[in-house]
Amino acid sequence: MWAYESVFYQIYPLGFCGAPFENDGVEMSRIRKVLDWVPHMKELGVNAVYFSPVFESDTHGYNTRDYKKIDCRLGSNDDFKEVCDTLHENGIRVVLDGVFNHVGRGFAQFQDVVRNRERSPYLNWFHINLGGNSNYNDGLWYEGWEGNYDLVKLNLRNEEVIQHIFDSVSFWIDEFAIDGLRLDVAYCLDHDFVRRLRAFTDSKKSDFFLVGEMLHGDYNQMMNDGMLHSATNYECYKGLHSSFNSMNMFEINHSLLRQFGPENWTLYKGKHLLSFVDNHDVSRIASILTNEKHLPLIYALCFGMPGIPCVYYGSEWGAKANKSEGDPALRACFEKPVCNELTEFISRLAEAKKNSEALNYGTFRSVVLTNKQCIFERKTDNERVLVAINADGENYVAHFDAGCGTAVDLISGAEHDFGGGSELPPYSAYFWKMEK
Q1: Quick one: 274 exposed, middle or buried, by C-beta within 10 A (0-12, 13-18, 19+)?
Q2: What pTM value is reported for the model?
Q3: pLDDT tens digits for range 31-50
C-alpha cells in the first residue's frame, strides 16, 4: 500500500485559504492557492496531501450541505480538479475528509424534512422524532453529533443514505482521481457501513486508502482487513509531547512497545497508524513543547517510530497557536510557506522515511532507554535502522551491542563508528542504517 511508504501533509482548506467562517454563498477560487505551495510540499518531501473538508458546508466544513460540490468559498469543482491534477502530476496523492457520520442543517434532504415533516421522502435519512423539538425550534427532534444540533446525524442503516454517500465517493474517484479518504469521527460510524465502504472503494480502486479518526480504545475494532487500513494514533500523540515536556522517554516507549513491540500480545504489530505531533483540532506543537530545542527531536521520533507521519501545514516551520485561542487560530491562513532549519530538517526526515524499508515496515525493539534518551531498532529482513534521540542538553554516551562496527545516518548522510560506545550530542537525533 502506497500510504505505508508516504509522508502526509495536512491542509485545512477553509483556514489555509482565508475563507470566511460563514458560508456567504459567494464563489471565489481560493483553493488555487494550493498550487503555489506545491514546490514547498515537494521540497518538504511530502508525497500525499490530506485535505480537511472541501465539500459545500454551513460553516467549518464538517457540517456538509452537498457531497458533490466544492465549497463555494474555496471555488468551483473545476478549480479543485486543477489542484488535484497538479498534485498528481507532481507525485503527490490526494486524500479527502469523508464526513459521513453527520451533515449540516443546510443539507437539502434535512431541509426537506423540516419543511414537509412526515411527507418528506427523506424522513428516515436521519434519526427524527416529530413529537419533539430541537435547540433550533424546528418543531421536531433529531439526533445531533454529541448533542450538537448543527451536526445532523445520518442514519447509516438506511440504504438510500448509503447509496447517496457511495455515489458521492464514486464521483470524487472518477472525476478527481482521489486516492483515499480520512473518515471523520470514525469511532461513531456504523461498523457495517464501514465494511461496505471498504468493499466499495476496493472495487473502484484497489489501492484506495481509508484512515479513520480514532481516539481511544482498541483501534483493531475498525482497523482490519475488512474495514480501515489505518487509524489516527492519538495514544502516541499524547505520549510524544508529554515525554519531552516531562523528560520521561519511558512514556512514549511504553506506548510503542504496547502497540508495536516484539511480544505476542502487541496490539498493532505490522499495522500502520497515522502519526502526528499536531493537527487542526489541537494546539500546535511549537506551543505545547516547553523547550523549543525539542521541536526537531519530536519530529524525528514521529518519523522514526512505526506509522505514517503527517505534518500539519505551518507547523513545519514552527508556527504557534493554542487551542484556548479557538479553532480559527489553529487553522490559520499563511501568506506563503516559510523555509527555515526546521523545514529543512523535516525534509531530510521525509526522504529517510520514504526510502527506508525498515522505517516503513520494520519491527520495533527498544535498545536503550533512560528518562532523557531513547534508542530503538526498526528491522526487516533486508535492513536494520537504529533511531536515537537525546533530549538532554548534555552529551550522552550510549553503551550497547550495535551488532556491527559502522553505520550511515539517514538524516545527515554521515558515517558513524560504534566502537567504544556511541556519543549523542545535546538535543540530537539519528537514523543509523547499520551495515550488514
Answers
A1: buried
A2: 0.96
A3: 999 999 999 999 999 999 99
